[in-house]
Amino acid sequence: MSETVAEVRKAVDRLYGHRVMRRRAPEVTSEAALRGARASAALAGADWPLEEVRRRSDFSASDQDRTVGAALRISAEAGQLLSVWRTSPLQVLARLHLLAVGDGDPAAGRPRQEGERPEELFPLQLSAVETGGAVVAEGAAPADLPPAPAPAEVAARLDQLAQLLVARTAGAPGGAPALVTAAVVHGELLTLRPFGSHNGLVARAAQRIVLIAEGLDPKSICPAEVGLVELGTAAYREALAGYAAGTAEGMTTWLSHCGRALGLGVRESTAVCEAMQRGMV
């Protein structure tokens, strides 16, 4: 795993050293946010072309429209929540969920209660997102994910996660690398599914906030969500099943998957920088 961490760190550093970043960093950040939001929505079942997301202004007509709108709202505000994240990560998670569902929903920002089941993380579909562009054998079964834990267990595990994150902010010694911390937050939220809906959007946004807060991607220019789409939902689900199993092998698979996704996000933004340098953007 240390090799993956080192490789990702080098790739991110190369991107930050690109000459375009010296002059147009805010533009790169905006483009990364847009591409990351589009990709996160695609993973949630709303796979729109990038230019359609860029063009549209109304995201209220259908379930897919609302999913894309939710991803965009979360992406737009995630970077502004750092100060709160450092002291109260659970408050930020609630805010992200409220952004996703809107003020009018009584469940906005509220964790699941007894008897409430969360929405599916991976809507059933066979598309380029589902397979990562690969050919999947007919009838191939997706990796099994355990049922979402009961609300009492969710609350206990979220509280423990929050304590660990706040301790890192306070400078507790012996911390894990930023990539590992971000992957654990991402995997834990997907496994717990604390809210009734939009858990995937919230988990991927939380990973992005960790990468910013931990200093690996302070300008938020590395859209790991794009990499997750490129690798495919089937691989995403398989890696998550490994994390949820709690084994050392499963954890390694999950961390490697998150590292590969971030590396592909770096490649995406590098291409954006190259296009800007050639005057194409």
From TrEMBL:
PROSITE patterns: FIDO (PS51459). Residues 88-257 form the Fido domain. Coiled coil: none annotated. Signal peptide: none annotated. SUPFAM superfamilies: Fic-like. This is Fido domain-containing protein. It comes from Kitasatospora viridis. The lineage of its organism: Bacteria, Bacillati, Actinomycetota, Actinomycetes, Kitasatosporales.
